[in-house]
Design brief:
This protein has a domain of 59 residues. The chain is built from four helices and no strands.
Length: 106
Amino acid sequence: MKVDETFLVQFILNSLPSEYGPFQMNYNTIKDKWNVHELHSMLVQEETRLKNLRSHSVHYLKNQGAGKKFKKHVKGKGPLKIDESSTKIQKKNDKCHFCKKSGHFQ
């Protein structure tokens, strides 16, 4: 079956992921339309650009705030208070569940 080249170019453009949105918009605004070979070379360039963009953004996020120490502070609250009842172990069975000896727990 013979497929028209303009249909094929448009089909390929429509099947691209959403990150190629600006690329598709650029193609739709230009007057000259590409053939399959031109589309291929432009997509290779765009893929390289997107890879470089991703690596720069990852590097930025990784190094953002480097060397700074942040303290988490909740307004209106002092140091963390632990309820004594939550720290006590309730002894229903004073034997280890693993070795079945008393005096410790697994």
